């Protein structure tokens, strides 16, 4: 299996585990809220209005596992399940993106990612 395939598999597994964690700590959240939160990191694409370099930087900042992990850890330390769930959902989004081949963006354009060009493989 190629390195890209391994990263895609890792993303899928992390997305599933993160969703399970979020569901365990926030079982009473309304169903309509889940898709909104899952898509929230993609709001960073607005940065592309300022050009590909700024767009890639903002998109990449919002699409690191570290952001969700830090939010979840703050929630754990503060005893705030909503932050744990929010961080887990953030990580689930990043994992799902990786699984689907949407990697971190290159400044050359939105289609160019660390997993290859979107639309191939």
UniProtKB/TrEMBL annotation:
<feature type="transmembrane region" description="Helical">
    <location>
        <begin position="63"/>
        <end position="92"/>
    </location>
</feature>
<dbReference type="InterPro" id="IPR025356">
    <property type="entry name" value="DUF4260"/>
</dbReference>
<keyword id="KW-0812">Transmembrane</keyword>
<keyword id="KW-1133">Transmembrane helix</keyword>
<protein>
    <submittedName>
        <fullName>DUF4260 family protein</fullName>
    </submittedName>
</protein>
<keyword id="KW-0472">Membrane</keyword>
<dbReference type="Pfam" id="PF14079">
    <property type="entry name" value="DUF4260"/>
</dbReference>
